[in-house]
């Protein structure tokens, strides 16, 4: 079962998600973590810490944890 991640903005970056979900301790660790570990975004490997994640995106990390982005209606307009 995936953990729902609530966001207020239109998107969150992959690096921000890793930090907010305590996968990494600081934002500066994102580059290293993504270089050393395979993170799947919508079942495809992605190593870009700036990758924008939108509501409905599913992220899987090596520990087996899965996250689904859930927005609250903020728009990018």
* Rg from alpha-carbon coordinates: 12 Å
Report mean pLDDT, rounded to a whole number.
Answer: 92
CATH architecture, by name, is: Roll
Q: What's the total helix number? A: 2
Tally of discrete structural domains: 1
CATH class (first level) name: Alpha Beta
Q: Largest sheet, described in full?
A: 5 strands, mixed
Order of helices and strands: EEHHEEEEE
Indicate the CATH topology.
Answer: Structural Genomics Hypothetical 15.5 Kd Protein In mrcA-pckA Intergenic Region, Chain A
Find the structural class using helix and strand composition: alpha+beta
Pfam families: S4_2 (PF13275)
Organism: Weissella thailandensis
InterPro entries: RNA-bd_S4-rel_YaaA (IPR014330), S4_RNA-bd_sf (IPR036986)
Keywords: RNA-binding
Provide the fold topology:
Layout: E1 3-7, E2 12-13, H1 14-20, H2 30-36, E3 40-41, E4 44-45, E5 52-53, E6 58-60, E7 66-71
Task: Provide a short characterization of the protein structure.
This protein has 77 residues and is an alpha+beta fold.
Task: Describe this entry's structure for a reader.
By secondary structure, this protein is α+β, with helices and mostly antiparallel strands. The chain has one domain (2-71): RNA-binding S4 domain (Structural Genomics Hypothetical 15.5 Kd Protein In mrcA-pckA Intergenic Region, Chain A), CATH 3.10.290.10. 18% of the residues lie in helices and 29% in strands. The chain has helices at 14-20, 30-36, and strands spanning 3-7, 12-13, 40-41, 44-45, 52-53, 58-60, 66-71. The chain has a five-stranded mixed beta sheet with strand order 1-7-6-3-4, with no helix packed on it. A two-stranded antiparallel ribbon has the order 2-5. The longest helix is centred in the N-terminal third of the chain and has 7 residues, at 14-20. The mean pLDDT is 92.
């Amino acid at each position: 079962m995936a953990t729902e991640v609530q966001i207020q903005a239109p998107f969150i970056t992959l690096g921000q998600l890793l930090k907010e979900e305590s996968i990494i301790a600081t934002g500066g660790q994102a580059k290293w973590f993504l270089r050393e570990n395979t993170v799947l975004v919508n079942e495809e490997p992605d190593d870009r810490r700036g990758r924008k994640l939108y509501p409905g995106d599913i992220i899987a990390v090596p520990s087996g944890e899965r996250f689904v982005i859930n927005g609250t209606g903020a728009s990018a307009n």
